[in-house]
Inverse folding.
């Protein structure tokens, strides 16, 4: 497939935004039993605002993917059958909940509404829990857009959903560590540790995905494509000399070597480098290293998403092997 | 239920592209606006087509055979491109089974093209919406046209009658008979899309003549005939 930058930015930006929001709620939850130091409401409010900005940036990027962005509202129509439609509905819901969560903290609406045992439930906690569920649902919707297309055998696996979720969560917690480091806040090691754990989870799931894809058995062949039973069967012309939508949308146009190099690049930028940087930041107590760790990992995720698209081979490509 | 479809006879297709050009001509001149091309007269001409004729070579030289292969939307009975469309712009008509795109609803997200294993959908780079074969819906349903003209443009243009058009759910239609009696098959059956369009396979036309069919060994006249002939007409030479 041709990697479209609009979609690469959309999926990585909203992933980081959702992850940062999950990190804010996690921080709040951990502070209830005093596992970590409770933060002022402003910390969560500004963190949510940053998460919202990432979500908005992702949404803006997605419009560049559409031929007719002015009709985008129509995409909410077929949520019963289309994962794309579901994403279009869940994304604004998540954005609204992130905004509401941040606002509730900003306004310090923290008087308990009711109590469950020793747990005092206030507006922020309720919004946090609902927002977390919506955020996880958004990860599933986004990933299922790809995992649901059975023709793209590289994508048609639950591993796609795990990858999107772990990558998004890892970069979001990395961003939370960077945010805390920037404020000089003690939560940096808490978020940093979670970011490393999630990064390792993502590594496991992505390596399993790469292994699986290296052993894919193609369902379609040129024989089934045109229905002629002969082992020696090649295309001589594809019916157009100057290319077509089919050659632009479904081929990445780079050498296998280039794809392989981008794969090595993301394997380095997403996994060992940020983990080392976070580790070094503990030792050096540097406020800049976690920020650098997030930036490095985000750039790596762009490369990861690029390969994700470039890896996928569509069966229609069988019909577009030779120009003349 | 009716399911309109094309049946394409690979045995007689000569790869002349008449269907491609007549399709383009009809569908670029209709109510839906042009099917736009880019650089039509330049080095890399490209554009949107509903129908393409491709060529494949079977076997190794000199034992090769050339197969011309026209390809357009197959109007699948289980169209995977329809449920993925977020807007409902892609739909399958319940009355005749044709899969269509509502160009006024399409947002140009291209998701449906990912969900078609045949590469039958092409974006119009000018109108920014998805396009594909309509089986000339505006023509076959036009009651003002005489009955013989209510067929897709490509079918009428084909000089070798390689393209048959009709209802594949009617067992007595020309297309159903052709599929049944001449080994009609579907493309990429492994995906369960159940394409409505079918293809008729290549076949060798061979005639077998035995030696004794050349002389009438059982001709009683000749067996017992004692006449000596001198070049005149005999009963065997008379054409009945
Ligand atoms: S051939 Fe492709 S575009 Fe046409 S109905 Fe089937 S899946 Fe859809
Ligand atoms: S490109 Fe148009 S027809 Fe295709 S899925 Fe998107 S909105 Fe539907």
């Amino acid at each position: 497939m041709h990697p479209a930058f609009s979609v690469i930015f959309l999926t990585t930006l909203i992933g980081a935004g959702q992850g940062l929001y999950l990190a804010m709620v996690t921080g709040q939850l951990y502070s209830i039993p005093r596992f970590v130091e409770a933060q002022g409401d402003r910390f969560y409010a500004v963190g949510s605002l940053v998460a919202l900005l990432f979500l908005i940036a992702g949404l803006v990027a997605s419009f560049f993917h559409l031929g007719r962005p002015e009709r985008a509202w129509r995409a909410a129509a077929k949520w019963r059958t289309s994962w794309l439609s579901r994403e279009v509905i869940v994304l604004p819901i998540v954005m609204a909940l992130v905004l509401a969560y941040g606002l509730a903290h900003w306004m310090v609406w923290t008087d308990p509404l009711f109590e469950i045992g020793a747990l005092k439930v206030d507006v922020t906690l309720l919004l946090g829990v609902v927002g977390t569920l919506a955020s996880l649902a958004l990860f599933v919707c986004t990933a299922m857009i790809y995992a649901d297309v059975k023709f793209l055998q590289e994508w048609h696996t639950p591993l796609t959903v795990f990858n999107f979720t772990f990558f998004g969560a890892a970069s979001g917690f990395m961003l939370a560590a960077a945010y805390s480091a920037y404020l000089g806040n003690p939560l940096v090691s808490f978020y940093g540790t979670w970011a490393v754990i999630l990064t390792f989870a993502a590594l496991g799931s992505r390596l399993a995905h790469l292994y699986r894809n290296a052993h894919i058995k193609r369902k379609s062949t040129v024989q089934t494509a045109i229905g002629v039973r002969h082992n020696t069967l090649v295309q001589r012309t594809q019916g157009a000399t100057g290319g077509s939508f089919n050659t632009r949308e479904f081929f990445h146009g780079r050498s296998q070597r280039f794809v392989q190099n981008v794969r090595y690049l993301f394997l380095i930028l997403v996994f060992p480098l940020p983990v080392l940087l976070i580790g070094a930041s503990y030792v050096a107590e540097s406020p800049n290293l976690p920020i650098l760790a997030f930036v490095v990992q985000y750039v790596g995720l762009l490369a990861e998403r690029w390969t994700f698209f470039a890896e996928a081979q569509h069966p229609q490509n069988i019909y577009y092997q030779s120009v003349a | 239920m009716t399911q309109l479809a094309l049946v394409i006879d690979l045995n007689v297709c000569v790869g002349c592209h008449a269907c491609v050009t007549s399709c383009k001509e009809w569908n670029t001149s209709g109510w839906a606006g042009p099917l736009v091309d880019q650089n039509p007269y330049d080095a890399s001409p490209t554009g949107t087509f509903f129908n393409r004729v491709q060529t494949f070579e079977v076997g190794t030289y000199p034992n090769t055979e050339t197969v011309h292969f026209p390809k357009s939307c197959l109007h699948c009975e289980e169209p995977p491109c329809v449920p993925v469309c977020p807007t409902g712009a892609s739909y399958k008509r319940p009355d005749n089974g044709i899969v269509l795109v509502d160009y006024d609803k399409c947002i140009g997200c291209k998701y449906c093209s990912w969900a078609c294993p045949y590469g039958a959908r092409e974006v119009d780079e000018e109108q920014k919406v998805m396009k594909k074969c309509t089986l000339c819906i505006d023509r076959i349903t036009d009651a003002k046209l005489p009955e013989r003209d209510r067929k897709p443009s490509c079918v009428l243009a084909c000089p070798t009658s390689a393209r048959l058009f009709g209802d594949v759910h009617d067992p007595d239609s020309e297309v159903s008979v052709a599929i049944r009696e001449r080994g009609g098959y579907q493309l990429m059956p492994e995906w369960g899309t159940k394409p409505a369009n079918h293809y008729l396979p290549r076949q060798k036309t061979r005639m077998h003549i035995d030696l004794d069919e050349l002389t009438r060994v059982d001709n009683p006249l000749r067996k017992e005939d004692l006449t000596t002939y001198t070049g005149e007409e005999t009963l065997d030479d008379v054409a009945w």
Q: What stands out?
A: Residues B 85, 87, 89-90, 101, 106-112, 130 surround iron/sulfur cluster (ligand 2) (CB under 6 Å). The first strand of chain A starts at residue 114 and ends at 116.
